[in-house]
Amino acid sequence: MPIDLSFLEREMVKSLLEKELEDIRSELHHTQNHEYKDNLKERERVIREVLAKLST
């Protein structure tokens, strides 16, 4: 399902996702719960995929 975003909207979404990646990296560094860490890694993977799509 394509989403038509303006340049400003695209940049805003990218900025929000990049901020989320920073937060995830911090959480990964501090957590010792393996299940939570796996969930964070999966979230990070999906965010990186979306960012890649937004950059094309």
Descriptive tags:
56 residues, mainly alpha, 80% helix, elongated
Describe this structure in words.
The protein has 56 residues and is mainly alpha-helical. It has helices at residues 7-30, 34-54.
In short:
80% of the residues lie in helices and 0% in strands. It has helices spanning 7-30, 34-54.
Write the layout of secondary structure elements.
Elements: H1 7-30, H2 34-54
Helix pairs in contact: 1-2
- Mean pLDDT across every amino acid position: 95
The portion of residues assigned to helices is over 70%
Q: Which series of helices and strands comes N to C?
A: HH
Task: Give a count of the beta strands, DSSP E runs of length 2 or more.
Answer: 0
N-C termini distance: 16 Å
Shape: elongated
Structural class: mainly alpha
Low-confidence stretches: none
DSSP summary: helix tally: 2
Main beta sheet: strand number and arrangement?
none
Percentage of β-strand residues: under 5%
Instruction: Determine Rg (CA atoms, Å).
Output: 13 Å
